[in-house]
Amino acid sequence: MDRTKIVAGLILLLTACGPKTHVIRVSSKDFTEQVVLGEIIAQHLENRLHEKVARSFNLSGTLLAQQGLLSREIDMYPEYSGTALAMVLKAPVGTDLHAEYARRFNLAWMPTLGIDNGFAMVVRRGTGLHTLSEAARMPWTLGVGYEFEQRADGLAAIKSVYGLQIKGSPKTMALGLLYQAIGQHQVDMIAASATDGMLSKLDLQVLEDDRHAFPPYEVSIVAREELLTTRPEVRTALDELSGKFTNTKMRELNYQVDVEHKGVAAVADGFLKSAALK
Question: How would CATH label the architecture of 18-115+218-274?
């Protein structure tokens, strides 16, 4: 056999038997904003690293995503500061997320993307109200999601801080029905999320949380520190996404998927182009 062919064959054999290159796996939780952000992260890494990135989207919950990081089944996903404090760290507002994630889990809490998707109390325009303090002077028929009613930083928080007056019991419903309910005058106020896509189109107003009843829900990427240390180019690429978003932009992206029914991949691609990242 030709000597060149023998050498080539040995190289192929050694390559096949050697350690496999780690495929970066980007994950997300199971709602539109998370999937959109996950796809943006994945596409951006592919563009910068020139390699295929695996997707593992629609994980059903924070604790499952956190466990996925710790077990090395996923490498990163977008998370909210308020959720991280309440559900993962079980720590008070003001805790240094970067330091605590590093100390407890050897995970990197990256700089904020620029989104703060906290709870948002929403009313129809024309009330003349601008703040929750003003709204607390009168009673409301309130529509809420199941989670908002149960969480300490949800309904309990606005009752405690503002003494919000509610007619009867809050009307609890699936999040997707809240905007229909306020549009049809079934309720006067809803507990929404600050980056809901419908807020970019409907004639609604978000009341200012002027007494800061709700903690911040800034979005950051959580990633395995081991990956970022061994591959610093990954950290560099992720850092490029920091500060590139606003609540208004995120509402638009969510609206494109939820209402205009555009594909998530196309919406992510459009964002990267508009942000001069592609």
Answer: 3-Layer(aba) Sandwich (3.40)
| Strand locations in 125-173 (E) | 139-140, 142-144, 165-166, 171-172
Compute the distance between CA of residue 274 and CA of residue 277 in angstroms, rounded to an integer.
8
In angstroms, how far is CA 129 from the centroid of its own chain?
A: 29
- Per domain, the residue ranges of the chain are 18-115+218-274, 119-206
Instruction: Give domain 119-206's CATH architecture.
Output: 3-Layer(aba) Sandwich (3.40)
Neighbouring residues of 70: CB distance < 8 A, sequence distance ≥ 6: 105, 107
Cβ(142)–Cβ(207) under 8 Å?
Answer: no
Within this chain, domains 18-115+218-274 and 119-206 share the same CATH topology:
yes
Of 15, 14, 40, 16, nearest to 26 by C-alpha is: 40
SS3 content of the chain, % helix, strand, coil (to 5): 45, 20, 35
pLDDT tens, residue by residue, 31-60: 899 999 999 999 999 999 999 999 999 998
Query: 181 with 187: CB under 8 angstroms?
Result: yes
What are 236-266's pLDDT values in tens digits?
999 999 999 999 999 999 999 999 999 999 9
- Which of 123, 121, 101 minimizes the C-alpha distance to 110? 101
pTM of the model: 0.82
